């Protein structure tokens, strides 16, 4: 029986949430996970319950939904839907990425925005939480089509964001190219050169290490978890899913630390390279994905390794699994397979890649499990550092930013241990991240009155 099922407050809260947000299953899942962690803590601290902090935190401060019309290369009119979920601004301006993917809907963006509030709080930086995007699919579109879409999207979004209000960044389908088009249009509409977006190019206000930050940060976090067992990445076999921004720089850091990366994937399938993906092969992946915008299958053809179409990489034996593609990409059976094959650590580069049943398997087997809101907070942390540099009109060196990123990931790890360590010494990082993230936001909300 779950903690929620054992608590009348928990049951009533979740029933209300589901009734008020029908059909938004990913949002229900994200709130359910947090509530499981928080229930005992809230019972022990009635000030949060009395002030209905959890009820308020699971209701967005503002949601904007808008039409995005644009013209494709053949002259046809296309219509997409745009969103921005401004979830919580108790500790700073709304901050969180934009996702362009055909699966995007309101429920998915609400789950991501809700997670982002806790994640941003954990970073120690002053950032509230938000998320946005569109059901637009940049795949198979020309640069001109992507630009026209981004310009139309920003024409509406620009009315709702600003460097002191809401500062979006990239996410799935939104990389350097898209941020450039979005920034250019914002600047044109507002006649302002400000830090309104992060993930900008180096020449126009971007921070060094921002592209690397989520992947590197996840590896730093996993390294801290391994350290608690006097272990490290040297010689470890590592499975990574995805082959986008997060996956690429996760692989880069693992290779640097002496681990062996054996898998990468995309939404069509995964590759298994038993010899390990080395620096040269990774360069091929970066060119393939970032410039050619091709499929991961081409890696298998180029290097003569196994390709598994329409499958995920979790059946491959590994010591550490770093899911870095999308939500709900490891289910119960796959989690059981990972553990059966000797996996000792799962650290989430993606947001909510493990289903609740998979998480139960990790916790039951007491492996090291780093939940996304802690483990992948490196991206938004360096986004926060990009905002600081923009305000100061300064650029820090690669070494300075990397050192700050590492320190932040170590601090997040310390917070997780502080709030997640059980009496038997086992650290439940999920409880630690949820409670640690909650306290700061909840205290700010209490101090600010009924907001
Ligand atoms: P990305 O560069 O667009 O790469 C996404 C990768 O995941 C691609 O390989 C993509 O394959 C795969 N993928 C996407 N949807 C999928 C699906 N439904 N099934 C299977 N594979 C799928 O995005 P990213 O920035 O690396 O983001 C990856 C994950 O990290 C997301 O969960 C994101 O929310 C999270 N995250 C990102 C950041 C950041 O700074 N970028 C920060 C924190 C968390 P296809 O190309 O075939 O679609």
From TrEMBL:
Keywords: NAD, Nucleotide-binding, Oxidoreductase
SUPFAM superfamilies linked: Aminoacid dehydrogenase-like, N-terminal domain, NAD(P)-binding Rossmann-fold domains
GO CC annotation, single: cytosol
PROSITE patterns assigned to the protein according to its UniProt record, in alphabetical order: GLFV_DEHYDROGENASE (PS00074)
GO MF terms, alphabetically ordered: glutamate dehydrogenase (NADP+) activity; nucleotide binding
Subunit structure: Homohexamer.
Annotated NAD(+) binding sites: 214, 245
Keyword Cell wall biogenesis/degradation included in the entry's annotation: no
Protein name, entry field: Glutamate dehydrogenase
Keyword Ribosomal protein: no
Binding residues for substrate: 95, 116, 119, 170, 383
Listed Gene3D superfamilies: Glutamate Dehydrogenase, chain A, domain 3, Leucine Dehydrogenase, chain A, domain 1, NAD(P)-binding Rossmann-like Domain
GO biological process, one term: glutamate biosynthetic process
């Amino acid at each position: 029986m779950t903690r929620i099922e054992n608590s009348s407050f928990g049951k009533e809260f979740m029933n209300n949430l589901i009734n008020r947000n029908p059909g938004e299953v990913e949002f229900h899942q994200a709130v359910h996970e947090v509530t499981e962690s928080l229930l005992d803590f809230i019972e022990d601290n009635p000030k949060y319950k009395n002030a209905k902090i959890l009820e308020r935190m699971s209701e967005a401060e503002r949601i904007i939904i808008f039409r995005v019309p644009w013209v494709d290369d053949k002259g046809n009119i296309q219509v997409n839907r745009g969103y921005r979920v401004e979830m919580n601004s108790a500790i700073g301006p709304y901050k969180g990425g934009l996702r362009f993917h055909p699966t995007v809907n309101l429920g998915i963006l609400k789950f991501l925005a809700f997670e982002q509030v806790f994640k941003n709080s954990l970073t120690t930086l002053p950032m509230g939480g938000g998320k946005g995007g569109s059901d637009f699919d940049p795949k198979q579109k020309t640069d001109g089509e992507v630009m026209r879409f981004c310009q139309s999207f920003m024409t509406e979004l620009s009315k709702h964001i600003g460097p002191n209000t809401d500062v979006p960044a990239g996410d799935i389908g939104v990389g350097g190219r898209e941020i450039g088009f979005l920034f250019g249009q914002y600047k044109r509409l507002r006649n302002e050169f400000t830090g309104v977006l992060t993930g900008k190019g180096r020449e126009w206000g971007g921070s060094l290490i921002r592209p690397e930050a989520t992947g590197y940060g996840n590896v730093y976090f996993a390294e801290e978890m391994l350290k608690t067992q006097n272990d490290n990445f040297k010689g470890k076999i590592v499975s990574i899913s995805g082959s986008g921004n997060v996956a690429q720089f996760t692989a880069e850091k693992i290779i640097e630390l002496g681990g062996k990366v054996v898998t990468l994937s995309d939404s069509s399938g995964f590759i298994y390279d038993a010899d390990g993906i080395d620096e040269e092969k990774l360069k091929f992946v970066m060119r393939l994905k970032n410039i050619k915008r091709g499929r991961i299958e081409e890696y298998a053809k180029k290097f003569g390794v196994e390709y598994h179409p329409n499958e995920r990489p979790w059946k491959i034996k590994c010591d550490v699994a770093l899911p870095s593609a999308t939500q709900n990409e490891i289910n119960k059976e796959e989690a059981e397979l990972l553990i059966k094959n000797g996996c000792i650590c799962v650290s989430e580069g993606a947001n909510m890649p493990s289903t609740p049943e998979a998480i139960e398997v990790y916790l039951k087997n007491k492996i090291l499990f780093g939940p996304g809101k802690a483990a992948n907070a490196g991206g938004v942390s360096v986004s926060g550092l990009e905002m600081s540099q923009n305000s100061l009109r300064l650029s820090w060196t690669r070494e300075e930013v990397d050192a700050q990123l590492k320190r932040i990931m170590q601090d997040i790890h310390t917070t997780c241990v502080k709030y997640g360590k059980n009496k038997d010494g086992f650290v439940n990082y999920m409880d630690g991240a949820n409670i640690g993230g909650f306290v700061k936001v909840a205290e700010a909300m209490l101090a600010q009155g009924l907001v």
